[in-house]
Amino acid sequence: VPARRPWTGTRIITVSNQKGGVGKTTSAVNLAAAMAESGLRVLVIDMDPQGNASTALSIPHSSGTAGIYDVLIEGVPLADVVQPCPQVLGLSCAPATIDLAGAEIELVPLVARENRLRRALATYLEGQAQEVDLVVIDCPPSLGLLTVNALVAARELLIPIQCEYYALEGLSQLLKNVELIQQHLNSDLQVSTILLTMFDGRTRLASDVAEQVREHFGDRVLRTAIPRSVRISEAPSHGETVITYDPASSGALSYAEAAAEMRTTKESA
Ligand code: ADP
Ligand code: MG
């Protein structure tokens, strides 16, 4: 068990990209697990009605389970829905149930509809006896109100990018939304981190796209790219992150390395 690191403020990172299947959830849960294993207290908030992050962390999330839906729509305290992750000490998760699918519409007429997660999280963080070091918010593949809530609640945005032909298409839409949110709802939001996922360095295309991404985003792109790895894709079906499922695998090592890089950016910031 690693020693508890000293608290240096709560870092709140939203993982978003409106494309599906680019590695948002995989990156959210594995970075969170790697950070927790390094001695940080980490909360994952699952904002995707699919509940894939909840599944990967072995958190029950069948319909009717108290989850993020109840927090956003019913005003239930976040503390009432957070559950400890059984595999990783220091890691907990606010699960998403399929009920959250309705929230996208149900949020529309509500007061402060873009701020509901931010408020719930602020109350939660104040009420914790032990400080939380990191909050990681996993988004659905859309730019609707669930994602807006996640972007308003965070100070950092991590964008996972899969190095394929259409990777950069659609990114301008996300960045435009980020600008609007910076102007109107959350001036603290920064695109802090880009993570290349499912990277296959043997293909020319992947290297070309990676180069383009690095040209555009500079040192915000983590040096560590996550390789395509069967172990990474197997882990969720065992209710685990690859960090515990196969700690020596290339996938686990690369997520641990990416997490270490992210801790350095914070320390030097
Ligand atoms: P998103 O949350 O953006 O929709 P996921 O994280 O769910 O994307 O990933 C999409 C699919 O790709 C999942 O089946 C996941 O297991 C798989 N996957 C993600 N990253 C990797 C990787 N590095 N190697 C192999 N499979 C991966
Ligand atoms: Mg996902």
TrEMBL record:
<comment type="similarity">
    <text>Belongs to the ParA family.</text>
</comment>
<dbReference type="Pfam" id="PF13614">
    <property type="entry name" value="AAA_31"/>
</dbReference>
<dbReference type="InterPro" id="IPR025669">
    <property type="entry name" value="AAA_dom"/>
</dbReference>
<comment type="function">
    <text>May play a role in septum formation.</text>
</comment>
<protein>
    <submittedName>
        <fullName>Chromosome (Plasmid) partitioning protein ParA</fullName>
    </submittedName>
</protein>
<feature type="domain" description="AAA">
    <location>
        <begin position="11"/>
        <end position="191"/>
    </location>
</feature>
<dbReference type="InterPro" id="IPR027417">
    <property type="entry name" value="P-loop_NTPase"/>
</dbReference>
<dbReference type="InterPro" id="IPR050678">
    <property type="entry name" value="DNA_Partitioning_ATPase"/>
</dbReference>
